[in-house]
């Protein structure tokens, strides 16, 4: 009979069964996309927080107290910053960790402001991309120990070279434990302690190599 095919139930149609099998796979794909979306949103939130923290450090000059009445740390200060820090903390000495740069506006401005305010000025050249040797560390610690206090230390951003110098001060002069000392070289101050990804990773390597000299023999 020519029309009998129309009486066959649709449930026996192979294409219909294929469609039902295909539909069962959609929830798994949807779950994967939800997971990826949440991961992307979380990563975006972390990046926003990191950028916001970096902006905040720049706005505040990355100024922090290391040891009250003794040591303070900051990014490159302007003449106005130096005057403000002198009034606020009684700064008597500035230790510039960028090294002497005669003729550079930032350097000449810093020295002029220090001289005008009767603040001592010291230079010590460091590079965030080079490991600090033990002999260099000894020189730096001696400078910080003998400098009239309160002392302000700074580099350009106040994160890497300044972080290592502050860590050395805490360990060798202030008598802090290893955890307290290393905390000065952290993301809180803008330092990114990631090997191979951070140009300033040699600062972390420097501290690790100096631990025995600093008396941290357990690590």
TrEMBL record:
Transmembrane segments: 35-56
InterPro entries: Prot-tyrosine_phosphatase-like, PTP-SAK, Tyr_Pase_AS
Gene3D superfamilies: Protein tyrosine phosphatase superfamily
Domain Swiss Army Knife protein DSP-PTPase phosphatase: 64-182
Pfam families: PTP-SAK (PF22784)
Keyword set includes Membrane: yes
Source organism, top-level taxon: Bacteria
Keywords: Hydrolase, Membrane, Transmembrane, Transmembrane helix
SUPFAM superfamilies registered for this protein in UniProt: (Phosphotyrosine protein) phosphatases II
One GO MF term: phosphatase activity
Protein known as: Protein tyrosine phosphatase
Organism the protein comes from: Stappia indica
């Amino acid at each position: 009979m020519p029309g009998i095919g129309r009486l066959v139930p649709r449930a026996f149609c192979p294409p219909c069964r294929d469609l039902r099998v295909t539909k069962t796979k959609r929830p798994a794909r949807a779950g994967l996309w939800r997971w990826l979306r949440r991961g992307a949103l979380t990563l975006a939130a972390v990046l926003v927080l990191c950028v916001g923290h970096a902006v905040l450090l720049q706005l505040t000059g990355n100024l922090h107290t290391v040891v009250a009445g003794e040591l303070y740390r900051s990014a490159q200060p302007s003449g106005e910053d130096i005057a403000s820090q002198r009034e606020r903390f009684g700064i008597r000495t500035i230790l510039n960790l960028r090294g002497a740069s005669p003729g550079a506006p930032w350097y000449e401005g810093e020295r002029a402001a220090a001289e005008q305010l009767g603040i001592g000025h010291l230079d010590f050249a460091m590079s965030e991309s080079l490991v600090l040797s033990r002999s260099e560390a000894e020189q730096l610690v001696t400078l910080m120990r003998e400098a009239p206090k309160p002392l302000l230390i700074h580099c350009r951003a106040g994160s890497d070279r300044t972080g290592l110098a502050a860590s050395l001060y805490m360990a060798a002069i202030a008598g802090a434990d290893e955890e307290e000392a290393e905390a000065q070289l952290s993301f809180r101050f803008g330092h990114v302690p990631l090997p191979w990804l951070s140009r300033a990773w040699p600062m972390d390597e420097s501290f690790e190599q100096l631990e025995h000299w600093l008396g941290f023999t357990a690590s």
